Amino acid sequence: MTTDTATRPAASDADRPGPIKAVPVRHPGRWVAIAIIAVLAAMLVHLLVTNKAFDWDFVFQAMNQKPVINGFLKGTLLVTVLSMVVGVAGGVILAVMRLSDNPILSGVAWLFTWFFRSIPRYILLFTMGTLGILFQQGISFGVPFDWKIIDWLGLSGDWRFFTLDANQIFTGLVAGVIGLGLSEAAYMAEIARAGILSVDKGQAEAAQALGMSSGKVMRRVVLPQAMRVIVPPTGNETIAMLKDTSLLLAVPVLGELFYQLQSIGSTYYKTFPIAVAATLYYLAATSVLMVGQYFLERHFGRGFGTQAPRAARPAGAGGA
Amino acid sequence: MALVEIKNLHKSFGSNHVLRGIDFTVEQGEVVCVIGPSGSGKSTLLRCVNLLEVPEVGEVFVRGEDITDRDCHLDAARQQIGMVFQQFNLFPHLSVLANCTVAQTSVLKRGKAEAEQIARANLDRVGLNEKVTAYPMQLSGGQQQRVAIARALSMDPALMLFDEPTSALDPELVGDVLTVMRKLALDGMTMLVVTHEMAFAREVADRVVFMDAGVIVEQGPPAEVIGNPKEERTRTFLRRVLDPTHVEPTP
Ligand SMILES: Nc1ncnc2c1ncn2[C@@H]1O[C@H](COP(=O)(O)OP(=O)(O)OP(=O)(O)O)[C@@H](O)[C@H]1O
Ligand SMILES: [Mg+2]
Asked: Per residue in B196-219, is it b (16+ CB within 10 Å) or e — as a string?
C-alpha cells in the first residue's frame, strides 16, 4: 500500500518514488480458469446430451408415473412439512423448557434432546415402525393405574378417555412424521435456544415492566426477534429434512419417492436413469425451499436495518 | 396511603450487598429524584419497585399491596408502574405505533382501534405523532426514548420509573427528553427518577434522595439536599458532580 509514504510528512522530493507507471492489471490466471471451465462445461453438456446411459426419455417417463409423483408429493413434500412443523414447535417448546428456572422442566428437555440426538435417524425410523408391539391393546389416554384405583374404590369400568389403534399409528407416514419430527425437535431445540439467548435481556425486561406475563413476553417480544437467528439454520434443517425423507423406507413407507423410482428401475433394469430422476426431483424441491427461505429471512429481519447489528449502533446516531 | 412504600429492603448479588436496608415512600403526585455515585444501588432500588430484581429482605407496597408477597399478582401490579430504561429497550421488530399498542391489546385487552387512539395521543404528548409508522432503528436516541415514554404512558400507569433516561443520549438530545418529563411532572404524574441531571432534579423534583453504598444518606427538598446538604458524603458527591471542570450537559 502507498498510504505509508503518502502520509509521512515532509519528505524531500528526492526521497519520493517516481510517478507510477500505470499498467492495466492483467489476470492471466483468470483467463486460464475461464478456458478450463468452458471446456469442462462443454464436456458436461456433451455427456448429458449424447451419452445413451442417461436415457432422458426414460428419466422423464419415470418421473411422470403416478406413484412417483405421489411419492414426491406425500412421501417427500408432505412429510417434510409435517415433520418440520412437529420439529420447530417441539424445538421451541424444548428450548423454552431448557431455559426455564424449573429444574424438572429443563431436565426433561435435556433428556429428550440427549435421547433423540443419540439415535441415527434410520434406526429411529425403523424402531418407530416396530413400536406397535408395545401397545397391542391400543394406546389409551386416561388416568394411569385406573384399574387399581377403580378396584380400590369398588367401582367398575375404566377411566380411559379415548383409545388409538397402535398398529395404525406406528406404520406408514404417521410413524415417519413422528420419528423425523421428534428427532428434528431435538436439533431445533438447540437452534431455538441460541435464538432466544441472542435477544437482549432488556427486551424481556421492558415487556415484563409493561405487565406482560412470561408467556406473552416470549410470544410477542422474544420469539419474533429470536426468529432472525432461528430462521437461517432452520432453512438448512428443512433442506436436510427433505433429503432425510428418503430414510422413510426404514419404517417402511412404501409410497416414498425413491422406493417408487427404484421399483420402476428394477422392473426395466435401468438403475442410472432412476438415480438421475431422483436427483432432479430433489434439486427442484431444494431450489423452491431456498426461495422460501429468502422471503422468511426478509420478513423476520424487519426493523433490524440491513447490516448493523442492534448492539453495534451507538445511541443517538442517525435518524431525523 | 403512600403510592409506593418500601420497608427495610435488602438486595445482594452474590457476596455484593448492594441494598442495605432502604426505607422510603413515594406519595401520589410526587416527583422524587434519586441521585448518588455510580454503583450505589440506584438502579437496583428502582428495579426492586417493579420486581425486575427480587429483594431478599423487605417489602415493597404499591397502593398498599405487598408485591413481594408470593401470592401477589405481579403482572397486574406491574401494569400500574411504567418504566423507562437507560437503553430505551424499544421492541425493534415492531413499529413505533405497535410498540405502544402491543401491551395494551395483549395485557389490558383493549381493542385495536382504542389502543391505537391512546397510543397516538401519547405519541402526540411526547411530540412524535408523525413517526407512528417508523421502526425504532430509524429514530434518533432522543426520539426512541420519547417513544419509550409514550409506550409506558399508554398503559395509564399510576407511577413512572425512570432509570437515567438521558444518560445514553448525545448532549443535544437530552433537552427534548427532559422537556417531556417536565411536562409529565406538571401534569401531576407520580415519578421516581434516577438521574445525574442536577439542574433537572433541582427544578422538577419535590424531593431529592441521595444514596451511597446501598443506603439512603439524606433526603429532602432539592433546595436542601442539593443546595445545602447536611451530610459530608452528599457534599463530596455534589462537589464532584457540580465541579466546573466537570462537563455536565445542561438541559
Ligand atoms: N445483575 C447483577 N448481577 C450482579 N451484580 C449486579 C447486578 N446488577 C447490579 N449489580 C451490582 O450492584 C451494584 C449496584 O448497581 P446499580 O446498577 O444499582 O448501581 P447504580 O447506582 O445504578 O450505578 P450507576 O450510576 O452506574 O447506574 C454494582 O456494584 C453492580 O455491579
Ligand atoms: Mg444505574
From this structure: bbbebbbebbbbbbbbbebbbbbb
Q: Distance, in angstroms, between A301 CA and closest chain B CA?
A: 8
Q: Is the CB of B87 under 6 A from ligand 1?
A: no
CA angle B34, B41, B215 (to 5 degrees): 75
**Which CATH code fits A55-129+171-300?**
1.10.3720.10
The Cα–Cα gap between A81 and A77 comes to 6
- Domain map of chain A by residue range? 55-129+171-300
Taking only the tens of pLDDT, chain B with its 251 residues reads 789 999 999 999 999 999 999 999 999 999 999 999 999 999 999 999 999 999 999 999 998 889 988 888 888 889 999 999 999 999 999 999 999 999 999 999 999 999 999 999 999 999 998 999 999 999 999 999 999 999 999 999 999 999 999 999 999 999 999 999 999 999 999 999 999 999 999 999 999 999 999 999 999 999 999 999 999 999 999 988 887 565 545 55
Report the C-alpha gap between B129 and B150 in whole angstroms.
10
Closest approach atom of ligand 1 to CA B44: 18
A315·B75 Cβ contact <8 A:
no
* Residue B30 DSSP SS3: coil
pTM of the model: 0.80
User: B36 to each of A194, B8, B217, how far by Cα in Å?
Assistant: 38, 19, 9
3-class SS at B212? strand
Cβ neighbours for B189, distance < 8 A, ≥ 6 positions apart: B29, B31, B160
Is B140 close to A216, i.e. CB distance below 8 A? no
Give the helix, strand, coil percentages of chain B, each rounded to 5. 40, 25, 40
Q: How far apart are CA A268 and CA A276, in angstroms?
A: 15
